[in-house]
Please model this.
Amino acid sequence: MRYLVVGAGGHAQEVAWSLSEHERVRGSSCELLFFDDALAPGPLASGLGAIVGPLDAVADHADRRGSSLVLGVGRPQLKVQLTERLGATGLPWATVIHPRATIGPNVEIGAGSYVAAGAIVTVNVRIGVFATINMHAQVAHDGVVEAFATLHPDAHVAGQVRIGEGAELGTGAAVIPGLTIGAWAVLGAGAVAVESLEGGRTYVGVPARPIAPAARRSA
Model:
């Protein structure tokens, strides 16, 4: 199987490593090709593969018999831009789940999403397309994580919480049960949401309070 990794920075290499570990556990092998507009072609220090060109070269390296795109970025707005840009290729997006992630029963994970090593998604959870559940992040029972949202490492989401489209929870952020985090909101590192948060704003502190409008996605 050939995987075309969109992005080649540190996060992209972590996603690719998770994918290669998943394939290894299954007893399969895969080929990883990386594409990045900002980095020069050449082998990666991680040894996972090489940057073969910019994003415009993705389609040129697709093996139509068995190629999938892999989203190697974590910032919600950039995820939107890149998935829209590459939609014309018609290639499927791989869903990447590290074998040391814990996924409970009745969990749905959308195409193009990433669940990292040590993450825990318990029961009756819905995760939308192109969402990121990073290392040791937790999503508890009956939660919803909408499309393009990102939970950074060690973010904790309690039961019956809805994380809106494109929302971003910083490292160590927490949300108590039953709340809604609005679309394109940012909950800063270590912040604790004790009430539902309006979308499109940035919140920090314990308890979390707004500091400024968050940058909204561009068309």
User: Anything to note?
Assistant: The longest helix spans residues 10-25. The chain has a mean pLDDT of 95. The longest strand covers residues 2-6.
